[in-house]
Write a structure and sequence with these properties.
heterodimer; A: alpha+beta; Ubiquitin-like (UB roll); DNA polymerase, domain 1; 5-stranded mixed β-sheet; globular; B: alpha+beta; Aldehyde Oxidoreductase, domain 4; Aldehyde Oxidoreductase, domain 3; 8-stranded antiparallel β-barrel; 7-stranded mixed β-sheet; binds FE2/S2 (inorganic) cluster
């Protein structure tokens, strides 16, 4: 196996490492960088739990190789709340709407919402629900996630 | 929701029970700071991967590990013989030993595709997996037994067993009187349900990190349903004192029954960690989880129900079979299916035959509402009956349901019924859903070629069970007011998403009179708090909540006693609100609770005489044996007649869950169960091919419901407090039990212009729905099931046992007609080792028989004690005697045994539990 030196910015801090070509970004984030909030639910691109934001776009970190993310800006769920601990609006909306139970799918759900509502993006509720159809939650029956989508759209319009 | 609790202790003005407060767990989980098992790594941790069987059944000829060991980074390789250096006895969920031999790693033979054969220890998970893939195994392959039908006719898969029956309960034949009732009834309706196999599929797969701490201690981080239960299980399995095992499971990503009991892989890792000097971690990947984890359901039932000409129930009989796989977490004929089939209905007579079957597939484990088949077959049968008899399905239920005004009563199987409200839930449901308006809309839609359907179902569910089987105990609450004035509690409960740190804190804040924000609940570590079996049987809100409430009330009383002494007031005049202690009529005396705590801990001379220093209380709540939850649900669907696709338009749940601690948590439990119900009815399926290969290996094959498959659920609250402390009823499993029949009924109603779903085969895929719409075998289900039958017939023809092979003929073969054994002068007198196959697992006993002429007496002796009997009979090799027992309930056991050489076979009729098999050999 060939080793590759990579460097990326994760949650605003520089992270370097040496990885095999086959190492996924998800494994790199969890095992090398210590961001265990990145959850691996299937490792084959279906469940969405591993979603992180790379250069502004929500991606499944189990389907991206760490070497592909060399030089990019990565945000994980650990990097969303502000340093004083105030929750990001997406996190707050999920909390207010009881959008989680076991919390395993949650980091992925939160990162997709965050990417789609960042800055000037004004998605419709239907667009958010369509995006959520790529996230599997085995616990909640999606009731709170639906409510969170509504809050995010209405909050965004206000 | 019941905002005001009917059993309020009257301490604080601020009520926390019944409030939709934000969860304590969420800040951690939303910021990625949860601690799931795979998130934990200890210094020196090495990683484990398994090499697994690629065939369903066969003998292992050789295992070549040399290529695997050559890979850099591989530290060790262990096979069954290596693991066996650390003895471990695998047990069922009920802590009974497995009745078929089972070892963590396959020893000599494999019994299912995925059976672990070898364990690799390496620097990283990737290297361990690389090495595992290089292990070469040579097999002598045997014909696998995959389906229930094959199990019935194929040769036994386990050594030293005479059939593939794992457990059998009930009656071989319909009792005479019931048979006459069924035959003579105005309407006899039959429903057959073929339930597919399900993967529990929690989003967090199984995982364990095990580290031996010196020669006497073991620490486990393991994703599970109760750290206490896991510690108890491993301590028994390994023969280690429980105190030596520490089990930590802070956050768990769902369980749904899968993580009740550690199974082969977890046991292998623990044994390896006992033998290997470094911490070992195994994290299952999804491919393993889907193809090699224990699975659930795969049951078949045929239910016959007799009605009079007004639709009143007269009698019923069912035949139930359950695929147990090769190594179930408890051999299971699912007696609960029959116990809870009818207590909510006025059903005069019911009998059944219930069997579990061993096959070369993954073992059976629990899944949310393991007995849910009763509601599915009964409620779908009732709708079918309504259509056939020509009665409205709601009216049919109203005629037969047990209303409060009918209680107390006893079900035909002897279950006391005195606290259930399915009829009342149904009535409330109907108030919230305009059925006539829907029927008009449905008729109009049909004119336009749109097919709408309404499904209704009602049920009851036993929850909060404690005291009748080994793992099901009460719960312990230990509540403290710290010297800081903050409140901490250590609970025996455990959350896998249930939010018990939230709901228990609400109970405590409410009854102690402090702010919810000031209460912290600790759980998730067996060294904290007392034993509790965790999340199983919808029990934690009921029992843990009761424990938290009573402990807090006791602690409040202690605070009041102290305050009364210090302020020279009467205990009655003291109140606690929002963490302040007040004396009536003396506002200047009000003090923060922390001030009293400081005195209680630090100034012993100021305490009343006999007052134990500190402010700490513990209480273990032993609730009534079982607390019933009732519900009625309605669902509206539209079926696309072109494509067979089902769209769920509306879903209303009318639930009696007693006192609601947190509406958001309760609704979350119901909604989660309903989503799983939708998965079971429409999407999820874990099929096996003819060679026993599981064919749903990824989430692209095993379809879980997505947000677009699940509607918004509406709730009608029909709550009545239960008789427990706090009045809660369990809600953990209900959605998964009542959801499937509700949805199936809606689909069947929509399809009724085309015909009946004659045989309900799940999941109802679009193709299977087209079977009904087009009245032909679009899905191939009929051909497949018929084809299976043909295969079985051929199989049965082929391997006729060779009489010259030296095989000993089964005992039955030498029993002459009439059951008379040739050796008539043999006697049963003497000492025997007996095994009774109870619904909770095999029970070993010693038996002693004395024979005098035709009279039989003696005793049976189990670890719980010895029981003598007399008055039995002995004739022609047949022994009959009765034993009255008190546990788990009062029943008379009727033994009917047959002597055959030095072996006894026979049956024991166990009252409402039906009939169990007995075997014995001379000791
Ligand atoms: S872990 Fe990446 S999509 Fe499931
Ligand atoms: S909260 Fe458990 S999987 Fe979504």
């Amino acid at each position: 196996m060939s080793d590759h030196s990579i460097s990326m910015t994760i949650n605003g801090r520089r992270q370097t490492g040496t990885v095999e070509a086959r190492t996924s970004l998800g494994d790199f984030l969890r095992m090398d960088a210590g961001y265990t909030g990145v959850h691996l639910g299937c490792e084959h691109g279906v469940c969405g739990a591993c979603t992180v934001v790379v250069d502004g776009r929500a991606v499944r970190s189990c389907l991206v190789l760490a070497v592909q993310a060399d030089g990019s800006e990565v945000t994980t769920v650990e990097g969303l709340a502000d340093p004083e601990g105030t929750l990001h609006p997406v996190q707050q909306a999920m909390r207010d709407s009881h959008g989680l139970q076991c919390g395993f799918c949650t980091p992925g759900v939160v990162m997709t919402f965050a990417a789609l509502t960042a800055e000037d993006c004004k998605p419709t509720e239907d667009e958010l629900i369509a995006a959520m159809s790529g996230h599997i939650c085995r616990c909640t029956g999606y009731q709170g996630i639906r409510k969170a989508a509504k809050i995010l759209v209405e909050g965004g319009a206000a | 929701m019941s905002e005001a609790d009917p059993q309020a202790h009257g301490i604080g003005a601020a009520r926390w029970i019944g409030k939709r407060v934000p969860r304590k767990e969420d800040a951690r989980l939303l910021t990625g700071r949860g601690q799931y098992t795979d998130d934990v790594t200890l210094p020196g941790t090495l990683h484990v991967a398994f090499a697994r069987s690629q065939i369903a059944r066969g003998n292992i000829v050789s295992i070549d590990t040399s290529a695997a060991l050559d890979i850099p980074g591989v530290h060790a390789m262990m096979l069954a013989k290596d693991i066996a250096r650390q003895p471990l006895t695998m047990m069922s969920f009920f802590f009974t030993p497995s009745e078929v031999p089972i070892t963590p790693l396959a020893d000599g033979y494999v019994q299912y595709v995925g059976d672990p054969l070898a364990l690799v220890i390496a620097e990283t998970r990737a290297i361990a997996e690389d090495a595992a893939a290089l292990i070469a195994v040579e097999y002598e392959e045997l014909e696998p037994v995959v389906t229930i039908a094959q199990a019935m006719t194929g040769e036994p898969i386990h050594p030293d067993t005479d059939s593939n029956v794992s457990v059998e309960m009930g009656d071989d034949e319909v009792p005479e009187q019931l048979a006459a009732t069924l035959e003579g009834a105005a309407h006899l309706i039959t429903q057959t349900v073929i339930h597919q196999r399900i993967s529990q599929a929690p989003m967090e797969n199984r995982a364990v990190l095990a580290t031996r701490e010196g020669p006497e201690e073991l620490t486990l981080y393991i994703t599970c349903q109760s750290p206490h239960n896991i510690a108890r299980w491993f301590s028994t399995a390994l023969g280690l004192p429980e105190g030596a095992i520490r089990v930590i499971a802070k956050d768990v990503g769902g369980s749904f029954g899968l993580k009740n009991t550690p199974w082969k892989e977890e046991c292998a890792v623990v044994c390896a960690a006992m033998l290997f000097p470094r911490p070992l971690k195994w994290t299952e990947d999804r491919y393993e989880a889907l193809t090699a984890s224990p699975q659930a359901r795969e049951q078949e039932i045929k239910l016959d129900v007799a009605f009079d000409d007004e639709g009143r129930l007269l009698g019923a009989h069912s035949i139930y079979d359950c695929n147990n796989g090769a190594y179930p977490q408890g051999a299971d004929a699912n007696i609960a299916v029959h116990m809870f089939m009818w207590p909510a209905y006025k059903m005069p007579a019911y009998s059944f035959l219930s069997r579990g079957w061993y096959t070369n597939t993954n073992g059976l484990a629990a899944y949310r509402g393991p007995w849910a088949m009763e509601s599915l077959v009964r409620e779908t049968l009732l709708d079918k009956a309504a259509r056939k008899i020509g009665i409205d399905p709601i009216e049919l239920r109203r005629r037969n349901l047990v209303y409060l005004s009918d209680q107390p009563s006893t079900s035909s199987m002897g279950i006391p019924v005195d606290d259930i409200t399915p009829g009342e839930c149904l009535d409330k449901l109907i108030q919230h859903f305009d059925v006539p308006a829907f029927r008009r809309e449905q008729a109009e839609a049909r004119q336009q070629g749109r097919y709408l359907g309404l499904g209704i179902a009602a049920y009851i569910e036993p929850t909060g069970s404690a005291g009748s089987m080994a793992p099901m105990t009460g719960e312990l609450a230990q509540v403290r007011i710290e010297p800081t004035g903050k409140v901490t509690a250590t609970m025996s409960t455990h959350s896998q998403g249930h939010g018990t740190a939230t709901t228990m804190a609400q109970c405590i804040a409410d009854r102690l009179g402090v702010r919810y924000e000031d209460v912290t609940v600790y759980e998730g570590d067996n060294t904290r708090g007392g034993f509790g079996p965790g999340a199983a049987g919808s029990r934690q809100g009921v029992i843990g909540g009761g424990a938290a409430i009573r402990a807090s009330e006791m602690l409040a009383d202690k605070v009041k006693t102290l305050a009364a002494h210090l302020y020279n007031a009467s205990v009655e005049s003291v109140s606690i609100e929002e963490g302040m202690v007040h004396v009536a009529g003396a506002p200047e005396m009000s003090r923060p609770i922390g001030e009293l705590a400081n005195i209680a801990y630090g100034e012993p001379h100021r305490l009343p005489p006999e007052f134990e220093a500190g402010l700490e209380v513990q209480f273990r709540y032993q609730p009534p044996p079982m607390t019933m939850t009732s519900a009625a649900h309605a669902c509206v669907v539209e079926v696309d007649a072109e494509t067979g696709f089902v769209k769920i338009l509306r879903w209303i749940a009318s639930e009696d869950c007693g006192t609601v601690i947190n509406p958001a948590v309760v609704e979350g439990q119901v909604a989660g169960g309903l989503a799983q119900a939708i998965g079971m009815v429409l999407l999820e399926d874990m099929p096996y091919d003819a060679r026993g290969n599981p064919t749903a290996a990824t989430f692209k094959d095993y379809l879980l419901p997505a947000i677009t498959d699940v509607p918004v659920f509406e709730y009608v609250h029909a709550n009545t407090p239960s008789k427990t402390i706090g009045g809660m009823r369990g809600v953990g499993e209900g959605g998964a039990i009542i959801g499937p029949p509700t949805l199936v009924n809606a689909i069947a109603d929509a399809l009724s212009p085309f015909g009946e779903i004659e045989e309900l085969v799940l999941p109802l895929t679009p193709a299977r729905i087209l079977d009904v719409i087009e009245q032909r075998d679009v899905s191939g289900t009929r051909a497949h099931r018929h084809g299976t039958a043909v295969e079985v017939a051929q199989m049965a023809d082929v391997p006729a046992p060779d009489p010259t092979s030296g095989q000993v003929p089964p005992v039955d073969a030498v029993v002459l007609p009439g059951g008379v054994h040739p050796a008539q002068d043999a006697t049963i007198a003497g000492d025997w080792n007996m095994v009774l196959k109870t619904p909770m697992g095999p029970q070993a006993m010693k038996a002693h028989f004395d024979v005098e002429g035709g009279a039989l007496s003696g005793y049976l002796e189990a670890p719980e004690g010895r029981q003598d009997f007399s008055g039995g009979t002995w004739s022609d090799g047949n022994a009959k005697f009765n034993l009255a027992v008190e546990k788990p309930m009062k029943i008379t056991l009727k033994y009917d045994l047959q002597l055959a050489g030095d072996a006894i076979t026979g049956k024991c009729k166990m009252g409402m539990f039906g009939t169990a098999k007995v075997s014995g050999e001379r000791s």
